[in-house]
Specification:
By secondary structure, this protein is mainly α. Helix content is about 85%, strand content about 0%.
């Protein structure tokens, strides 16, 4: 048995891990207050908004061909 084989999850252990994770998340949801959930949601929004504002235009700019970009510029103006 190699070192890697000892840490490879089998199908039964993967299922057990998912059940453990689900139980852990259920317990977490039961014990967090609404204020904590609101603070977590606010943090996610503050983090995601700038990333989306920067990444979305950059991704569209790299994906869209020049012809489509030119036509859209003519329509918008």
């Amino acid at each position: 048995m190699s070192n890697r084989e000892r840490y490879t999850l089998g199908s039964a252990s993967a299922e057990q891990f998912c059940q453990f994770w689900s139980a852990h998340m259920d317990a977490l949801e039961r014990h967090l207050s609404a204020k904590t959930w609101a603070m977590a949601a606010f943090t996610v929004v503050l983090t995601a908004y700038p990333i989306l504002r920067i990444a979305t235009p950059a991704l569209l700019h790299s994906v869209m061909p020049d012809v489509v970009r030119t036509v859209l510029n003519l329509i918008v103006r």
